[in-house]
Specification:
3-stranded antiparallel β-sheet; 11 strands
């Protein structure tokens, strides 16, 4: 997922420039109110499937052979720039918060030498001098909190690579198909959302035994079925949208 979708003013975290800077705990999700989808790592599928619809979308990047890449996304809304999980009070109305949000306002960017550098969203009001967790001490050293966040982001990047392997494998196997999400709201209004792909269960079941065994043993098969089960959450999104529309002035 592009950083520009969430990070309004990303800057490299600098030990000198940012001495004494703090970040508040993310308990107001207004920054994500216009995100109708967000990136998921493969390892998040089992928990995310309980809350969200998991779909796959094409991303601009190509792999080393110039082939199309896809990425898993959790759907937060059915309309553009609308997150049905963020209330008017900024509360996140779900039991699970995806990892890409839990790292905010920090993230990694890859330097020309392949190393990861830490960035922070300097445009977020929770990045301040007074309250929250200290990032860099007066001595210019990273604090235990920032060290823990770096470990979390290291783990996140490892999961991103694992996810890329899963996505390339299901693309190679031709398992994805485009779908249109058609819903009918309580008032009778119909809505269609497209641009999402799901695993074709018929093709999954028709895989050669050796391939199915491979997917079972490396854990991919279970993750794909978690994804398929997640599609039943379309009804939850429909209900959320209906409730939001009913609360709006006529």
């Amino acid at each position: 997922m592009s950083l520009t979708a969430l990070y309004r003013q990303p800057v490299l975290l600098d030990r000198n420039q940012h001495r004494g800077k703090r970040i508040r705990r993310l308990d107001h999700f207004g920054i994500a109110a216009k995100l109708n989808a967000g990136f998921l790592t493969a390892g998040e599928f089992p928990e995310a499937a309980k809350e969200f619809v998991i779909g796959f979308v094409t991303v601009p990047e190509k792999d080393e052979q110039g082939r199309e890449e896809v990425s898993p996304m959790a759907l937060f809304g059915l309309r553009q720039e609308e997150n049905l999980l963020v209330g008017a009070d900024g509360r996140w109305d779900a039991r699970y918060v995806p990892a890409f949000l839990r790292r905010y306002p920090l993230a990694y960017v890859r330097a020309d030498d392949g190393q990861h550098n830490v960035i922070v969203d300097a445009g977020w009001e929770g990045f301040n001098d007074v309250e929250g967790e200290l990032l860099v001490g007066a001595d210019g050293e990273t604090t235990p909190f920032l060290q823990d966040m770096i470990k979390f982001m290291d783990s996140f990047e490892q999961e991103v690579q694992r996810t890329r392997v899963l996505c390339r494998r299901i693309v190679d196997l031709g398992l994805l198909k485009p779908v249109q999400i058609d819903v009918q709201l309580p008032g009778g209004q119909k809505l269609a959302a497209g641009g999402v792909m799901v695993v074709d269960e018929a093709k999954l079941k028709a895989l050669p035994e050796a391939t199915a065994t491979e997917l079972l043993r490396n854990g991919i098969l279970g993750l794909l079925y978690a994804h398929l089960l997640s599609t039943t959450n379309v009804q939850r999104l429909t209900e959320r949208l209906g409730t939001r529309l009913a609360a709006q002035p006529a």
